[in-house]
Amino acid sequence: MTPQIDCSDLVKIFSAEGVEVQALQGLTLRVESGELTAIVGASGSGKSTLLSILTGLEVPTAGKAVVDGHDLLAMSSAERTRYRRETVGFVWQQTSRNLLPYYSARQNIAMPLALAGMPRARRAERTDQLIDLLGIGDFADRRPTQLSGGQQQRTAIAVALANEPKVLFADEPTGELDDVNSQLVFDALGAVNRELGVTVLIVTHDQEVSTKVRRTVQIRDGRLSTEVHRSTETDEFGEEQHRSQEFVVLDRVGRLQLPQEYVRTLGLSGLVRVELAVDHAEVHPSEQAGATEQPAATESTGGDK
Question: Does residue 302 sit in the same domain as residue 199?
Fold first, then answer.
């Protein structure tokens, strides 16, 4: 099956006053249709640059980036505009950027439908559907200045979904919210994913948000470093068991980034010693005399990799 988001060896270089900065350094990412995925990373890791490319706001320098069959390196300006209007939806971190201040929440949701030429009756039906799904009926006729930050973001999600996009991108959607409103917004994104089947990709530094999705991808130094996959299983007693498994991303030339926790625990730096066992590889500090640390083992049967 072809991934809905398919990035391979993605490179983005910014140039300013003769200085080049490589924001993405051969990043590879695949997201299947219907996934709810969080991308996490420190400031400057490249996650915002990746999101700008996937939403069509930036053009990559090299590599491959395809979203729902659209080649983001080959699109014309007109195709890029149509892509942003019809294929993807986007929610900004800054609540004030998502909504028109002189329209009510309901009118904001209806605006993209009016611009698309949807008949009035169908427009009202779609608007009501999104209002119900996002749970914003109690304040649908208020303007943004009369709404809390969380209410604004839930309305913004409805606006982003108005034209039935295949993929919804959210850039730090809870970054300006308190814990209660953050949970409401995250629940709304989960409902969108479940009820509409929309693929949702969230960029966040909020570790609490990232632990509530089935898949968390960490970016470091412009490349994917680790992934955590979560699942829920029912045991023999009918009890739900939550499981998580961490993977290290191995690129096509054999490079990988060990989790920072492993590096700190084992005191790894500079040269490290690697050994091949029957079914896994071991990574050791280069000086082993008298060391009591356990080696970091990487299974050779990559499973989901």
Answer: no
Q: Is residue 251 part of a domain?
A: no
Number of domains in the chain: 2
Tokens (6 digits) for 72: 């983001």
Question: Structure tokens of 260?
Answer: 């920072």
| CA torsion through residues 212, 244, 32, 65, sign | positive
- Give the SS3 label for residue 174: coil
Rounded to two decimals, what is the model's pTM?
A: 0.82
C-alpha to C-alpha distances, 203 to 91, 253, 274, nearest whole angstrom: 10, 27, 34
151 and 271 in a single domain? The answer is no
Are residue 159 and residue 286 in the same domain, yes or no?
no
Query: Tens of pLDDT along 3-16?
Result: 999 999 999 998 87
What is the three-state SS of 93-148? CCHHHCCCCCCCHHHHHHHHHHHCCCCHHHHHHHHHHHHHHHCCHHHCCCCHHHCC
Query: 293: domain range?
Result: 259-305
Beta carbons of 91 and 173 less than 8 angstroms apart = yes
Q: For 196-207, write each residue's pLDDT tens digit.
A: 999 999 998 777
Which helix (H) or strand (E) segment is 14 a member of?
strand 5-16
Instruction: Mark whether 282 and 157 lie in a shared domain.
Output: no
Indicate the pairing of strand 88-91 with strand 19-31: unpaired
187 shares a domain with 132:
yes
